[in-house]
């Protein structure tokens, strides 16, 4: 999420962004951490979602790839779909949330993205 925000604010210093099971809508509202934010931190999840939606009104001008899994039990996969940036490539994989950073197929997808969008 931080890389997306840097790309939004400073596209001249970011060549591309790949997210792995990252929510692009709702902030923590659509994650397993929602209860912690609501009950422990006393955060208003609807207010956070409105703030995230407001940020998303400014499109990101660098190549984006969102990798997500319908088996993800940490982040609801629907929250990973970027409906704000038309150029975002969405790729569904069959992996758990925790394995996204280690799965060889996912790593190959990241490598492919970098090969296409980041000059050597």
What would you say this structure looks like, in words?
- Helix content is about 35%, strand content about 10%.
- It is an alpha/beta fold and about 120 residues long.
- The protein has a domain of about 80 residues: Alpha/Beta hydrolase fold, catalytic domain (Rossmann fold).
- It has a three-stranded parallel beta sheet with strand order 1-2-3, sandwiched between helices.
- The chain is globular.
- About 25% of the residues are buried.
Summarize the model shown.
This protein is of the alpha/beta class and 120 residues long. The chain contains four helices and three strands. The chain has a domain at 2-24 and 60-117: Alpha/Beta hydrolase fold, catalytic domain (Rossmann fold).
Give the helices and strands, then pairings.
Layout: H1 2-9, E1 17-20, H2 34-40, H3 45-56, E2 64-69, E3 89-93, H4 104-117
Parallel strand pairs: 1-2, 2-3
* Quaternary class: single chain
Helix- and strand-based class? alpha/beta
Low-confidence stretches: none
Helix % is 25-40%
CATH topology of the domain at 2-24 and 60-117: Rossmann fold
Just give the CATH class of the domain at 2-24 and 60-117.
Answer: Alpha Beta
Count of extended strands: 3
Largest sheet: 3 strands, parallel
Distance between the termini: 25 Å
């Amino acid at each position: 999420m931080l890389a997306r925000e840097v790309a939004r604010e400073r596209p001249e210093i970011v060549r591309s962004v790949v997210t792995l099971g990252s929510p692009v809508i709702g902030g923590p509202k659509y994650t397993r951490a929602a209860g912690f934010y609501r009950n422990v931190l006393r955060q208003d999840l609807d207010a956070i979602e409105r703030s995230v939606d407001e940020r998303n009104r400014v499109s990101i001008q660098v190549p984006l790839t969102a990798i997500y899994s319908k088996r993800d039990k940490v982040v609801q996969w629907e929250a990973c779909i970027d409906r704000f940036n038309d150029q975002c490539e969405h790729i569904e994989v069959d992996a758990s949330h925790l394995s996204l950073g280690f799965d060889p197929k996912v790593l190959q997808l990241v490598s492919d993205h970098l090969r296409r969008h980041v000059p050597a």
